[in-house]
Amino acid sequence: MSIRNTGGASPRDRSARRTKRLTTGAMFAALALIFSYIEFLIPINIGIPGIKLGFANLVIIIALYEMDFRYALAINLVRIGLSGLLFSGVFAMLYSLAGGLTSLLVMALLRRTGRFSIIGVSMAAGVAHNFGQLIVAALVIENAKMFIYFPVLVFSGMAAGIGIGILAAVLDRKVPKQLFR
Predict the structure, then answer these.
(1) What pLDDT score does 11 carry?
(2) pLDDT of residue 146
(3) How would you write the chain as a 3-class SS string?
(4) Residue ranges for the chain with pLDDT beneath 50
(5) Exposure of 14 in the CB half-sphere (CA atoms within 13 A)
(6) Is 11-179 CATH 1.10.1060.10?
């Protein structure tokens, strides 16, 4: 017979903690969806489709840093799915999924090294997001010439990532940690 280490917490305490994390995750998913909608309303028209500010990624990076990868992934998937169904359409959801998963993977890997600030992680995620979307665009259009846009997308991803990273660094210091525990 094995004895499971419960950390001294009663079943009621563990249940309350799980419920709190679930509701925090749901709140983050709703916030990310709201940010996606706001971004949907702000067109950025510089001749290259798909350039966005990445407001929803602010929520994802905070979730990654304060909760864990699984919560950040779940929040990201809920946001991408609902945003695609409500605002941008199912086809655009494919691009969002590629960008969102690529950027989250890069964020998780860089954070795990401990060598990058939240701003550096966010900047790399912005570039990764654009790269993921560009790969899908090249596959859908069946034209590798899409990669001619990559330098512009690197710059826009870096700029947006730095901006989101600065906001994330400020929020990470200001938001009470007990919200996530």
Answers:
(1) 81
(2) 82
(3) CCCCCCCCCCHHHHHHHHHHHHHHHHHHHHHHHHHHHHHHHCCCCCCCCCCCCCHHHHHHHHHHHHCCHHHHHHHHHHHHHHHHHHHHCHHHHHHHHHHHHHHHHHHHHHHHHCCCCHHHHHHHHHHHHHHHHHHHHHHHHCCHHHHHHHHHHHHHHHHHHHHHHHHHHHHHHHCCHHHCC
(4) 1-5
(5) 7
(6) no
- Confidence (pTM): 0.86
- pLDDT score recorded for residue 178: 67
Supply the pLDDT for residue 108.
98
